[in-house]
Amino acid sequence: MRRIKLGIGTAMGAAALAAGALALAPSAVAVTPTTATITAECGTFGSGLATLTATQNGTAATITLSSGAIKAPIDVPAGAVASTLTLSKNGSGTTTFTGNANPAIKTGSDVTTGPLKGTVAAGDKLEAKSLKLVIFGLITVNCTATSAQSPGPFTF
Prior knowledge:
Shape: globular
Strand content: over 45%
Distance between the termini: 55 Å
């Protein structure tokens, strides 16, 4: 009988420790909205709708952008696009998200880039303004947002 009491006490103690650890663990902060769209003009490379998807983990955030506004002029292997996304920050300043993370893109396909990495603070409101893509270090594509981000800025 003593072993049973000891076993139950040990199990209850472990459960209490696990519950305490969960209560003290930092929670993931959510960005809202997680997906937004803009219309962008990319000069001779095209124009149209772009979709942005944001995630957040503490002060680290990522944004992935995909768009039919830009079509790949040639096959582009994964990681061959250096991207800089510039966003307005809290209505007055700017911040950038950068990265060389793109999937392989076939000739004529929509361009996707990201996740692009950036740093945020609680309460930051970010809205996409421009995107610079440098493909193979040779081809530069500059895009400018021609519409407000919908349904609104990302709030972190």
